[in-house]
């Protein structure tokens, strides 16, 4: 989580990697955030978080055939410096002059910084061999208030433009392109519009739609102000009244509602309060995303002015990256820029000022909303966060690298001293504050605890004292050699590997470069690290780490007066006050309205709805450029895989390996099946996985073990994986060690796993209690922030054993089990240890229950055979063990009762889920074309009804083609009943849908885009493993692809029939919602017989 400076970016994702519907902004900032190599050093910490995410997501995705630059190998790339455009041509033909040109060896990239002579627009043109091409347009958009104008504008410009005069070109691209990234972000001081694709034609299509959107959007179009205003009202805010009953008057709007969701999350409240307290005098002192209380103050005129001031080429930084022709980039841009003249006034206005440093530290107290029940429950949990502004302006490179390194040693792993001191203190449940943030103009550092008992003020003060005293003592005593070596290896590994997960590398570089460029600094500097790292190593030797880090800690933290301690306290009446304030404003308006005004408002409400519900004419949609089916490869992509068997002590073990270029890194998984895990211990499995790498062994305490992992590997963790299987009732479940190491350290990697399996220390009550408290605290945050994934998990658990297992391992049932476990630790820890030991002995054996998965090039794979054999030999034999009933799907007690339920948490929005099974209850035949139907349903009917008309932040359908489970879900939804009505209308929509050849082709292409999504070698190797475990063959995948490519309108109608039948005969609702909304829904939908349950 980005505490102080979160920016909004999002993929509204589904649980465990079922299909994701992309949607822009807001939402899961942490996801994108985790993907970013924010600074040279911060990237290392990102990787750790990322590894955890991958493992919990079942990604049945293929990679591209030629994964580009799998790892940056300097000597391999240096030989081929890509040519740039002839400067004369750039200038005379396209109006671009070169400011600077440099080859960046770290990324094998030729970088040319251009300036457009007519407008002053800047372009960074990065040319290399990465096929995952990336483009971005970035504007400086500082604000003076919290009306959320840049955020609303960010949504609105993607709703139609000059060349693309349709309702939502963004959605049309989502429906029809092969993009590997399509989104937009609002930061506190800038707005970014990035796209990426591996297909050149597709890429330029995306670029053109985005350029037209930002410079010529319909939302500010003067010739048709009514239409523009309608966009503003839909995306921003408007009054809604759909019955003559004036008490039903309310505010609606996508951003309005999105931000209500954000403001419901205490973690986001904390981040915002901290940022605003640190920067009271400048733009960071207000919320660029919008405070729901202020959003409704924004007028359409202010909105248009903002666009005119800041969305101008003179205030734009363009970014192109990848293997496409650099001259074409200039050609495309100049065709847009030539319409403009320079606007120096806007540039001046957009400058981001700096905050004057405080003379004295401050303390700020603020509040977050909790339910009355939680208040009475004695859960007086406070957040205490200590924050600093570190510098008057952006860090110089040397300090940035050094401080980033310090940040990692202080907080990077659970064994890091500052993190550990906080957790060990027992003052709170989990660490909050993200440490160093250096994406904004002035870097900050934030750290603290959440779940602090707020009943005495003294307690709060203790947290601040602890942070300061720990830092002081570290400044004097320094860090151990082992910790420094581990940090150095982790950071260097991560820089060299440059593994950005599913996030395009070009985008990661762009965001890194932008953090300097946006403040008029050199955009190339942040991309270079090789020489800086060498210099830093030398400094470490010359000055000694104790002196170097001691000086940094004293100067920037301990002796720095620009410090704010934020105490965020729970408040049981806050929500009612906020609601009252909103109602008060509406009451005022109501009182001032005449009969005619009411009618006029109802007319406008109807008009907006009609407009929203009326699809664009097919003819109009043709303006969106798209590929043709002929551009799509007919063959499904294959991941190189070979399966061999290894014999050890009379047992046979499968070894799956994938020959891919990984620049000397070995990616390795050791997977052990869960068939012998007793059902009653399932809930403990995820925690047990954490214990494996975070409790230490009988030979090393957990700090030493963590450091050894850091010194010897590029990361190692243990994760659980569960899934249903095609045509079976049973479950596939595994506990996996997953990690990476260079080939020369692979023996160490195996040694560590072996050590953990044999000697893990499970009897450490304090450490275990800390992990349980952290788990509970994390689940409480995600129940409020990502309620849809819990609702969908519940619905799946009503239907099959895999869903049931996942529910106890990480759903609401799992949460309730964790709360019981917390008590049992105090009462009878011995029995907990016995359970953990039972898990260990049920899992780690060699034989048919285990599998080794390796990804590296052939030569490396051969060179490590001995180590793999040695590892397997070290494992005990399994002997004859039966398979547990739940694993075979024969234990129905794992299933939740089928019912319609409302799960109550403190929130201002709802997450509404509904599910059925299309194979079992609708007799749908398994076919790849179902994926096309499901995708289209999400991007048309559900998008229009749930998001556009309903005002929810997201709404989508998710289809599991393996099991037939179809689920609907909405995200940050102001409604409940009308969302369910929209779901039920899906069947009719599909049964009657008419698609011309063009629309059908687009839907097919977009589905292929999902299937072929881009991934790096480690992810491809893992994907192949998952397919192997689930028995998904290449032949079957080819068949599904053939079915996707030959989808007809008939498939939509058949799917609609099946959905109709299944929804009517066997479907359930599960929603995470507020107490008030639950009461209202129970009253209004008596026929559903809702059962309400208070969770938080
Ligand atoms: Zn948004």
TrEMBL record:
Its cofactor is Zn(2+). Residues 568-821 form the Peptidase M16C associated domain. It is found in: Mitochondrion. SUPFAM superfamilies: LuxS/MPP-like metallohydrolase (SSF63411). InterPro entries: Metalloenz_LuxS/M16 (IPR011249), Pept_M16_N (IPR011765), Peptidase_M16_C (IPR007863), Peptidase_M16C_assoc (IPR013578), PreP_C (IPR055130). Keywords: Hydrolase, Metal-binding, Metalloprotease, Mitochondrion, Protease, Zinc. GO terms for molecular function: metal ion binding; metalloendopeptidase activity. GO terms for biological process: protein processing. One of its GO terms (cellular component) is mitochondrion. Pfam families: M16C_assoc, Peptidase_M16, Peptidase_M16_C, PreP_C. Belongs to the peptidase M16 family. PreP subfamily. This is Presequence protease.
């Amino acid at each position: 989580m980005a505490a102080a400076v979160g920016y909004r970016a999002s993929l509204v994702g589904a649980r465990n990697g079922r299909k994701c519907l992309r949607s822009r902004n807001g939402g899961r900032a942490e996801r994108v955030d985790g993907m970013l190599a924010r600074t040279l050093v911060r990237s290392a910490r990102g990787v750790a978080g990322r590894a955890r995410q991958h493992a919990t997501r079942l990604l049945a995705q293929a990679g591209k055939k030629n994964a580009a630059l799998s790892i940056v190998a300097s000597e391999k790339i240096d030989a081929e410096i890509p040519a740039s455009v002839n400067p004369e041509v750039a200038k005379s033909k396209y109006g671009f002059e070169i400011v600077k040109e440099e080859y960046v060896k770290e990324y094998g990239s030729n970088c040319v910084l251009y300036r457009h002579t007519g407008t002053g627009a800047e372009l960074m043109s990065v040319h290399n061999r990465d096929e995952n091409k990336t483009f971005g347009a970035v504007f400086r958009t500082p604000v003076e208030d919290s009306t959320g104008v840049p955020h609303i504008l960010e949504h609105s410009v993607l709703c139609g433009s000059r060349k693309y005069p349709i309702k939502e070109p963004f959605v049309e691209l989502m429906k029809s392109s092969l993009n590997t990234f399509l989104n937009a972000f609002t930061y506190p001081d800038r707005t970014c519009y990035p796209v990426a694709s591996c297909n050149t034609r597709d890429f330029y299509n995306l670029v053109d739609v985005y350029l037209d959107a930002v410079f010529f959007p319909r939302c500010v179009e003067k010739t048709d102000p009514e239409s523009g205003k309608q966009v503003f009202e839909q995306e921003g805010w408007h009054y809604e009244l759909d019955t003559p009953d004036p008490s039903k008057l309310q505010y609606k709007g996508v951003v309005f509602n999105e931000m209500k969701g954000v403001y419901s999350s205490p973690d986001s409240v904390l981040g915002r309060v901290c940022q605003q307290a640190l920067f009271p005098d400048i733009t960071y002192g207000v919320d660029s995303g919008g405070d729901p209380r202020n959003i409704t103050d924004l007028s359409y005129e202010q909105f248009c002015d903002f666009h005119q001031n800041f969305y101008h080429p003179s205030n734009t930084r363009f970014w192109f990256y990848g293997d496409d022709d650099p001259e074409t980039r200039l050609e495309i841009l100049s065709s847009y820029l030539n319409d403009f003249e320079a606007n120096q006034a806007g540039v001046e206005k957009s400058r981001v000022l700096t905050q004057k440093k405080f003379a004295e530290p401050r303390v700020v107290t603020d509040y977050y909303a909790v339910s009355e029940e939680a208040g009475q429950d004695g859960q007086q949990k406070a957040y205490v966060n200590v924050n600093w502004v570190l510098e008057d302006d952006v860090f110089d490179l040397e300090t940035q690298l050094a401080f980033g390194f310090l940040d990692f040693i202080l907080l990077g792993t659970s064994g890091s001293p500052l993190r550990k001191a906080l957790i060990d203190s027992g003052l709170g449940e989990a660490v909050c504050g993200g440490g160093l943030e250096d994406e904004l103009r002035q870097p900050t550092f934030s750290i603290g605890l959440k779940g602090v008992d707020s009943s005495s003020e003294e307690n709060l003060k203790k947290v601040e004292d602890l942070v300061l005293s720990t830092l002081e003592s570290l400044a004097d005593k320094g860090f151990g050699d082992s910790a420094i070596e581990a940090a150095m290896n982790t950071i260097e590994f991560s820089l060299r590997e440059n593994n950005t997960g599913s996030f395009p590398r070009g985008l990661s570089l762009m965001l890194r470069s932008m953090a300097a460029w946006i403040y008029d600094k050199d955009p190339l500097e942040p991309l270079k690290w090789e020489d800086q790292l060498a210099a830093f190593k030398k400094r470490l030797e010359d000055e000694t780490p104790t002196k170097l880090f001691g000086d940094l800690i004293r100067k920037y933290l301990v002796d720095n007066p620009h410090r704010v301690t934020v105490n965020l306290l729970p408040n049981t009446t806050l929500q009612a006050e906020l609601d009252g304030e909103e109602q008060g404003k509406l009451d005022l308006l109501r009182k001032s309205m005449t009969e005619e005004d009411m009618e006029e408002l109802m007319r406008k409400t109807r008009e907006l709805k009609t407009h929203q519900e009326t699809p664009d004419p097919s003819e109009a949609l043709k303006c969106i450029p798209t590929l043709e089916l002929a551009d799509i490869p007919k063959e499904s992509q294959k991941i190189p895989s070979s399966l061999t068997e290894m014999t050890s002590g009379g047992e046979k073990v499968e070894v799956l390996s994938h020959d891919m270029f990984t620049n000397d890194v070995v990616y390795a998984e050791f997977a052990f099946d869960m068939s012998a895990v007793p059902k009653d211990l399932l809930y403990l499995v995820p925690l047990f996985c954490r214990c494996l790498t975070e409790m230490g062994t009988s030979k090393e305490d957990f700090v030493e073990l963590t450091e050894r992992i850091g010194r010897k590997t590029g990361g190692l963790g243990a994760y659980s994986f569960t899934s249903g299987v095609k045509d079976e009732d049973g479950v596939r479940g595994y506990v996996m060690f997953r990690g990476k190491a260079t080939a020369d350290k692979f023996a160490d990697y195996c040694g560590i796993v072996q050590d953990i399996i044999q000697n893990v220390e499970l009897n450490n009550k304090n450490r275990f209690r800390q992990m349980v408290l952290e788990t509970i605290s994390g689940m409480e945050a995600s129940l409020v922030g990502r309620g849809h994934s819990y609702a969908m998990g519940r619905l799946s658990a009503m239907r099959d054993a895999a869903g049931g297992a996942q529910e106890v391992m990480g759903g609401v049932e799992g949460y309730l089990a964790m709360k019981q476990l917390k008590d049992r630790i105090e009462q009878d820890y011995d029995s907990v240890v016995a359970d953990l030991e039972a898990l260990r002995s049920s899992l780690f054996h060699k034989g048919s229950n285990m599998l080794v998965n390796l990804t590296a090039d052939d030569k490396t794979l051969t060179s490590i055979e001995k180590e793999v054999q040695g590892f397997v030999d070290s494992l005990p034999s399994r002997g004859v063990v039966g398979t547990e009933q739940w694993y075979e799907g024969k234990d129905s007690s794992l299933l939740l009762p089928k019912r319609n339920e409302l799960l109550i948490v403190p929130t201002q929005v709802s997450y509404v889920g509904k599910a059925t099974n299309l194979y079992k209850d609708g007799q749908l035949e398994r076919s790849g074309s179902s994926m096309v139907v499901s995708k289209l349903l999400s991007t048309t009917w559900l998008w229009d009804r749930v998001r556009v008309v309903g005002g929810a932040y997201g709404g989508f359908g998710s289809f599991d083609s393996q099991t037939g489970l179809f689920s609907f879900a909405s995200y940050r939804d102001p409604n409940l009943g009308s969302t369910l009505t929209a779901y039920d209308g899906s069947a009719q929509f599909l049964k009657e849908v008419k698609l011309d050849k063009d629309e059908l082709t687009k839907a097919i292409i977009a589905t292929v885009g999902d299937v072929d999504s881009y991934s790096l070698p480690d992810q491809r190797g893992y994907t192949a493993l998952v397919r192997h475990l689930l028995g998904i063959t290449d032949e079957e995948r080819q068949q599904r692809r053939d079915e996707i490519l030959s989808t007809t309108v008939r498939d939509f109608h058949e799917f609609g029939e099946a959905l109709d039948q299944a929804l009517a005969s066997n479907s359930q609702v599960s929603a995470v919602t507020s107490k008030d909304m639950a009461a209202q829904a129970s009253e209004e939908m008596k026929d559903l017989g809702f059962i309400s349950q208070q969770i938080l």
